[in-house]
Write a structure and sequence with these properties.
With about 725 residues, the chain is α+β, with helices and mostly antiparallel strands. Helices cover about 45% and strands about 15% of the residues. The protein has 3 domains: about 1-245, no CATH class; about 265-355, PDZ domain (Pdz3 Domain, Roll), CATH 2.30.42.10; about 355-705, 2-enoyl-CoA Hydratase, Chain A, domain 1, CATH 3.90.226.10. The strands form 5 sheets. Strands 4, 5, 6, 7, 8 and 9 form a 6-stranded antiparallel β-sheet that branches. It has a 6-stranded mixed β-sheet with strand order 11-12-13-16-17-20. Strands 2, 14, 15, 18 and 19 form a 5-stranded antiparallel β-sheet that branches.
């Protein structure tokens, strides 16, 4: 059957290809068919998207073609399931009016594509089993392409077989490498007297061949469980993705997961997850969470298996939908979950617990550094801020005990003033944003009053000039910290973090140090259930999922936008994150492009940061980091990362594969030490990076003192 389908799809005539396409979805399992509810959601989602999105774009042929491409990319990103004949047939039948048809509630094209995708996955899993039944030759000199941009859809049946043969060889070698690494770690643990769990022993003894067979069998079973919600979410999100990368449709199940993740009071392990190329990847570890306290799970880890309790079987979750993986990981507080993660094939045990706001709140610590007088050190107060949070419901009730970013940081600043602190360091390196009002309120703790951020609700509404701009201002003239300020950022600092850093930079109020720029997200999203928008406060509304839509762009006080560009640092500190690809706004599909607008009128100006000060501090920091052994290791890691990124292929010859792997792992011990030093902690700890920040702060204080710069009270300088 596989051979007949593949051969027939090689036909050049459109009629033959389309006939094959429609015939191919008639397999044993019933194909998915759009229901009346799906059509209603599609129509209303499209109307809301056109009316509420910042760009005000109307769905047309151009959006249809781009949405079609994104839809294919979303469901087959590695080009391993569809053939070029499949894509040609899809394009001829659906590409030009893909989104236009969905806008009318006609979902036949989206469902036909997805049904054939399910069929192709079943065929490829069967092919994988056939390949695994034959001996694999690892002495042949051949390579697999790992750069997705270089991949094309296979054009012939032989190309399909060849690609899957190489893919399976690569996965086999990867599992073999992970098994060797796991065996080494288990041996080391036993030497140190630690017990190795039955689960680890069982996995360590399982041959890669058996594991691969189980993986593809599991994938085939999961495809049989695909629901209409999954198809609809993929299709509508593809349309939304043409508008910008942050606009999406969320199915009812996804909405539930989103609400839980946004809450700072839930039971789980405290990790933000995303789905990338079939893998569930750790994007963020919540400060103070069970995952952070346990200490082994790292940002960038890929979860390939999940087990319940001490001895429950570990389920393979490669190619499993994100919501299913989240369901397996989430659970009642006090229960144990085991995660199997790569690289290194580690088994990580985490006890679920209630994630409290307190654990994710701002933290502060005072360090003594440098010398402001003979024998008298400077006191530098460091505040670690993981997000811009707030108990919105409690604040609406005017609860005096309501927790908020600005309130917590103000208490820390008050303690700094009472303790005679000389400078404040605000660390936003892992702060991905949060509540806009908190970013504005927090900025207000450092400035008298004035504009913090400008926002516009319509990309094309320029006729109104200033009337079309919302000015979010700090109107409170009081200042909680008027002294020297250093803000630390990275490429992971996004959205609300960029608003604060941008305002501080525009007003020359404080020094920005860290990666060369921040993330580059200059837009605001709103999440609203579709039924709420349609039916208002009525009860017994249908659950139609939600739309997350970009409703505003924001600009910094001087009129520049952080969108794509980010907020540039005054002093750049070497780090791996500033060289990493795929983590900035500009790396995403279809990011918004915003032009500069007029500066705000009410802009306070300080003289605390000048070009001369920045030049001097940059030179002193460069001399110091150039001589640092710790930063030498960072530079080596950067060079290794660049070398890995530059390679477009991976050898499938076993000897060459492991030789390359040994080269990449040659500095693994140092790499693990660096990761440990850079890892988040429930308490602020000094490491080589924070030491450099503190040294820059001391240099800054010395220069300010030499220039006799006067600061506003309260300050001890």
């Amino acid at each position: 059957m596989k051979k007949r389908i593949a051969k027939s799809l090689l036909g050049g005539a459109f009629a033959v290809a389309l006939l094959t396409l429609t015939a191919a979805v008639c397999f044993a399992a019933e194909p998915l068919v759009p229901k009346a509810k799906d059509k209603g959601i599609a129509v209303n989602f499209s109307k809301i998207l056109e009316a509420r999105h910042f760009s005000r774009r109307i769905i047309d042929g151009e959006i249809s073609r781009e949405a079609f491409d994104l839809y294919i990319k979303e469901i087959d990103p590695r080009k391993i399931y569809f053939t070029q004949a499949d894509i040609d047939a899809f394009a001829a039948a659906y590409r030009d009016d893909f989104a236009l048809q969905i806008k009318k509630g006609k979902l036949d094209g989206a469902f036909a594509i997805y049904n054939l995708y399910i069929k192709r996955v079943e065929e490829r899993c069967a092919l994988a089993e056939e390949i695994l039944a034959q001996p694999l030759d690892f002495t042949v000199d051949e390579e697999i392409i790992r750069d997705k941009d270089l991949l094309t859809f296979p054009k012939t049946e032989q190309e399909v077989v060849d690609r899957w043969r190489k893919r399976i060889k690569f996965e086999y070698l990867s599992l073999e490498a992970d098994k060797k690494d796991a065996d080494k770690k288990a041996e080391a643990a036993l030497k140190e007297g630690a017990a190795v769990s039955e689960a680890e022993d069982k996995w360590s003894d399982e041959p890669p061949l058996d594991r691969l067979k189980r993986r593809y069998h599991s994938l085939q079973k999961r495809m049989e469980q695909t629901t209409n919600d999954g198809v609809l979410e993929a299709a509508l999100t593809a349309i939304a993705g043409v508008y910008d990368p942050h606009t999406t449709y969320m199915s009812p199940k996804t909405c539930e997961n989103f609400n839980i993740q946004m809450s700072l009071n839930f039971e789980g392990i405290g990790a933000t997850l995303s789905w990338e190329d079939g893998y569930t990847e750790v994007k963020e570890i919540v400060k103070g969470s069970p995952a952070e306290k346990q200490g082994e799970l790292q940002v960038g880890d890929r979860i390939i298996g999940v087990g319940q309790g001490e001895s429950g079987p570990i389920d393979d979750v490669v190619d499993v939908r994100l919501d299913e993986v989240v369901d397996k990981i989430r659970g009642k507080g006090g229960t144990l979950v085991r995660l199997q993660v790569i690289p290194g094939n580690r088994i990580i045990k985490i006890k679920r617990a209630k994630i409290e706001l307190e654990d994710s709140a701002a933290k502060g610590k005072v360090f003594e550094v440098g010398e402001k007088a003979p024998g008298v050190p400077y006191k530098v107060g460091v505040i670690d801020l993981p997000s811009f949070y707030g108990d919105s419901e409690a604040m609406l009730r005017h609860d005096a005990n309501a927790r908020s970013t600005a309130g917590d940081v103000k208490r820390l600043l008050d303690s700094f003033v009472a303790d005679g602190v000389d400078a404040c360091v605000l660390d936003l390196r892992i702060n991905g944003g949060g509540l806009l009002p908190e970013a504005i309120a927090l900025t207000g703790l450092f400035i008298d009053s004035g504009n913090v951020v400008q926002a516009r609700p319509d990309l094309y509404n320029r006729k109104g000039g200033r009337d079309s701009t919302y000015f979010h201002n700090d109107t409170d003239p009081s200042v909680s910290w008027g002294g020297p300020l250093v803000v630390v950022t990275s490429k992971l600092s996004a959205s609300a973090s960029e608003i604060l850093a941008g305002a501080i930079k525009d007003y020359h109020r404080g020094l920005i140090v860290g990666d060369d720029t921040t993330h580059g997200k200059g837009s605001v999203q709103s999440v609203q259930p579709i039924a709420d928008l349609l039916f208002g406060p009525l009860s017994n509304k249908p659950n139609m999922g939600a739309i997350k839509v970009t409703i505003q762009g924001f600009w910094l006080p001087a009129g520049d936008t952080s969108q794509l560009k980010g907020v540039a640092s005054d002093v750049v500190i070497p780090s791996v994150t500033q060289h990493m690809e795929g983590i900035s706004e500009s790396d995403l599909d279809n990011p918004l492009e915003l032009e500069k607008i007029p500066a705000a009128v009410d802009m306070p100006h300080y003289d605390y940061v000048t070009p001369e000060i920045v030049a001097a501090l940059s030179e002193m920091s460069k001399i110091r980091t150039d001589r640092s052994e710790d930063f030498d290791k960072v530079r080596e890691k950067i060079a290794l990362y660049k070398e890995v990124k530059a390679k477009k292929t991976t050898p499938l010859n076993r000897e060459k594969y492991f030789a390359e792997l040994d080269k990449l792992n040659s500095d693994k011990e140092e790499e693990e030490k660096l990761e440990k030093m850079m890892k988040n902690s429930s308490e602020i700890q000094r490491d080589y990076y924070l030491d450099e920040v503190l040294d820059i702060t001391v240099d800054y204080l010395d220069l300010l003192k030499a220039k006799n710069v006067r600061f506003e009270a309260p300050t001890s300088l």
